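Quick note —
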Amino acid sequence: MNDDMNDDMNDTNHNRDIRNKPDKNLLLEPHQGILLIAHGSILADAEGDVRLLAEGLREHTDARVVEVGFLDYTDPRIPQAVAACVKQGVNELLVLPYFLTTGFLLTKCLTRVKEAAAKHPTLTLRLAPPLGPHEKLADIVVERVEEASENLEK
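Predicted structure written out below.
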């Protein structure tokens, strides 16, 4: 990827503030928590969007606990994030993958979540599907194509 493409991908217009995106409040029970899982990156702040999404979940749900856990490279890692949820009184953890498909990395993440949860016998896991099969993703892809076509040099 050339430097211009890197600049375009990091452009603040591309990374809209997703904290304001949810249009409804989600009501959770006091014992429930949310764990957003992602791969992690060797690039500094590459996972900023994941953290913004977690902040949006905190603002648009009544969840007492919303944590982010990463498979590799970025802290906190998944086992630490699961332990943090339990330490805050969560006994039912809603696990939300920040992945498009159920591929190798998501499978590896879920294995780590289950291994970490096994250390806490009172913890129940509820797994959400990956983002990819959702119908709204097609709208986002079309929007990205439109954005890219506007940036084409003529």
